[in-house]
Amino acid sequence: xxxxxxxxxxxxxxxxxxxxxxxxxxxxxxxxxxxxxxxxxxxxxxxxxxxxxxxxxxxxxxxxxxxxxxxxxxxxxxxxxxxxxxxxxxxxxxxxxxxxxxxxxxxxxxxxxxxxxxxxxxxxxxxxxxxxxxxxxxxxxxxxxxxxxxxxxxxxxxxxxxxxxxxxxxxxxxxxxxxxxxxxxxxxxxxxxxxxxxxxxxxxxxxxxxxxxxxxxxxxxxxxxxxxxxxxxxxxxxxxxxxxxxxxxxxxxxxxxxxxxxxxxxxxxxxxxxxxxxxxxxxxxxxxxxxxxxxxxxxxxxxxxxxxxxxxxxxxxxxxxxxxxxxxxxxxxxxxxxxxxxxxxxxxxxxxxxxxxxxxxxxxxxxxxxxxxxxxxxxxxxxxxxxxxxxxxxxxxxxxxxxxxxxxxxxxxxxxxxxxxxxxxxxxxxxxxxxxxxxxxxxxxxxxxxxxxxxxxxxxxx
Length: 462
Prior knowledge:
Strand order of the largest sheet: 2-3-4-1-5
Protein name: ATPase associated with various cellular activities (AAA) family protein
Largest sheet: 5 strands, parallel
Organism: Leishmania donovani
CATH topology of the largest domain: Rossmann fold
CATH superfamily of the largest domain: P-loop containing nucleotide triphosphate hydrolases
GO biological process, one term: vacuole organization
GO molecular function, one term: ATP hydrolysis activity
Radius of gyration: 32 Å
Number of domains: 3
Strand content: 5-15%
Region (Disordered): 380-418
Order of helices and strands: HHHHHHHHEHEHHEHEHEHHHEEHH
Distance between the termini: 67 Å
CATH class of the largest domain: Alpha Beta
CATH architecture of the largest domain: 3-Layer(aba) Sandwich
């Protein structure tokens, strides 16, 4: 038996000598017991293993594009492909059922039925939306709607991020010799300026997978487990094809200055492991880190980054554009002059502060409408009770009968109020923003802004 296995392995190696430069051969007595979650990284330039897997679908699904599907299968494992096959079978059964129903009812003139049967979609490509690559299952998914266009107040930061990510893809001839794209970038600035949103938008614009890591994901009470989580995060990022953005949120919780009073052995080992992996050269991985306290970071950690990007507070023009854009979705009486007066009162407001102010102001008419509605319902209920008491005491002839009906005593929850649409909610007015400004204040103080400016000058950041 062993000799037969050796001969078969030798024959396969001779046959595949011209196809692959390296081969990985493994033998198993129980192949069905192999763990499907065991991942094998397939590089993008070695598509033949992916092609051999995808060709198994060609017998039943002849309309699939084998080469394109092989490219999309990079990063998948057997379990992911099995889940995709299940989705394909479900789509195929739905297509057969639609065809059978169309033939049975003879609805050739139905455009919906003809469209369903004329152009069969690639179900395996559709399944990729529901079955992501296995290396991304523990990653934070990037919303497709998050782009640089709807990220307010970050123009300088977006310019630096574009120079580090999308520009090398669009113009690779610019980055030759010592001019190489930045791979490790630190986003710093006051809270609420959109650093996390910038990371998600960068991954979406870059066409990369976003792996978001926080301190809670890495810290563990078990010895050696935190360092293992750091290694696994970088291995996951390297295995994510074709590109990956590895994002460390609130990195000051991980890499504060070493040697401080009360620093534990676990924290020192975690920082050392993270510093070692930040030195690794991973061309397909862009490391982003965000912090509100850059002056708390360790000096060795700062030296690992190629670029410091300051995400500052939005300007008055950005805040005005944000308020004007959001107010288009509600009925209001805010003029341009009133909008300028509102913006003038939002000194040191971050993007999150402006959104909180807007949310509080647009909800004020709803609160007024609800109070007025409840007062109207209470008045009608009181009148109904008084009418019922008067009707029950009215004597006609020899008996006593009620003159009120059941429907009249029932309170009406929908009343007509002065407003602008079917629900009659009042318009958003300038006074609502004035009231909101009494409650919503800036979360960043003038001293903190000065401290960011000082650190920016010392670090020679953006």
